[in-house]
Amino acid sequence: MTDLVPLLFPDVTPQGIAVLLGATLLGGLVRGFTGFGFAMVFMPLASIVLGPVAALGLIWMIDLPFALPLAARSAKRAEWREVIPLMIAATLALPLGIALLTWLDRQTMRWLLALLVLATVALLASGWRYHGKPGIPLSLGVGAASGLCNGLASIGGMPLAVFWLGAQRNDRHKTRANMQTYFGLSTIVSGTILALKGIITLTSALMALPLFAVYGAGLWLGTHAFGIASEQTFRRIAYLTIFLSALVSLPLWDALLQR
After folding, report:
1. Residue 19's pLDDT is what?
2. Residue 88 and which of 5, 7, 104, 143 are 20 to 30 A apart at CA?
3. Which of 5, 31, 29 shows the shortest CA–CA distance to 18?
4. Could you give the count of Cα atoms lying within 13 Å of 67 in the half-sphere of its Cβ?
5. Quick one: which of 45, 251, 81 has its CA closest to 154?
6. Residues in the chain with pLDDT < 50?
7. In the prediction, which pLDDT does 131 show?
8. What's the pLDDT tens digit per position in 88-135?
9. Helix residue spans in 51-198 (DSSP H)
10. Concatenated DSSP letters of 14-72
């Protein structure tokens, strides 16, 4: 069994494997609980171990077997008038995000990723809300931001979290259904582009194999917790988990933690 570890996790230390396992479980819990947030938890931590480009390919592989079934179950509850414009704009903006990912150096990407996540959580936790139904221009703008963030670091859920969690008229059930449906569609689109760019590799596929069960366990626990949690608890747990993951990933702590 131990002979498989170097094959599945090439050039990754035991501490790094532990980080990946923990990030996968926490990300699965948040994803199952809220309908989003796996990448917002996983990417900052996985980027420490693998670098942003390799982490982007890995996160797509881990989420693939789960995103489509979750989307199929949520599609009936989703508001397609909001989902479709977002998806179109996100698809057009995705290649630009991938180009930025490959252009920026690893340290800069880690700072940018962590600060974007922290800023988003701060905005959501502040209690900010907007009223009324979003128009097409707003939906297209949020979709473009989602596509850019998705290509940059697979964190396309950040603009969507602000968009749907920030909508006063949305409850947690509607938010979760919209998120699950959107991510199922975006998995197909982003996977095609990432494969063409050479970001999804055999290495990322092998590394994902032992993480599937961990992610599935997190999703199962998060999904069952969703059924008993209140609206306030739902938001607080999601915000806190994402915030702590981004905070720990800041390069500021590298010297202190000897990483």
Report:
1. 92
2. 104
3. 5
4. 22
5. 45
6. none
7. 61
8. 999 999 998 888 888 878 778 778 877 877 887 787 777 666 666 667
9. 52-74, 80-103, 106-125, 136-153, 157-165, 172-196
10. HHHHHHHHHHHHHHHHHHHHHS--HHHHHHHHHHHHH-HHHHHHHHHHHHHHHHHHHHH
Phi, psi of 69 (to 5 degrees): -60, -40
> Cα–Cα distance between 193 and 200 in angstroms, integer?
9
What the block records as the tokens of 63 is: 């989420």
Q: Which of 220-224's residues contact partners 24+ apart within 8 Å by CB, and which partners?
A: 220/32, 221/28, 221/29, 221/32, 222/28, 222/29, 222/30, 222/31, 222/32, 222/33, 222/34, 223/32, 223/33, 224/32
Q: Which two tokens stand for residue 149?
A: 């963030």
Token pair of 15 as six digits: 């501490």
Task: Provide the pLDDT for residue 163.
Answer: 74
pLDDT at 210: 92
Nearest C-alpha neighbor of 209 from the set 24, 19, 26: 24
Separation of alpha carbons 160 and 38, rounded Å:
13
Q: What's the token pair of residue 78?
A: 């989703």
- For residue 117, count CB atoms less than 10 angstroms from its CB and return exposed for 0-12, middle for 13-18, buried for 19 or more: buried
CB neighbour list of residue 84: distance below 8 Å, 6 or more residues apart: none
Tell me how far apart the alpha carbons of residues 147 and 168 are, in angstroms, rounded to a whole number: 24
CA–CA distance, 44 with 251 (Å, rounded to integer): 10
Q: How far apart are CA 85 and CA 141, in angstroms?
A: 9
**What confidence score (pLDDT) does residue 17 get?**
93
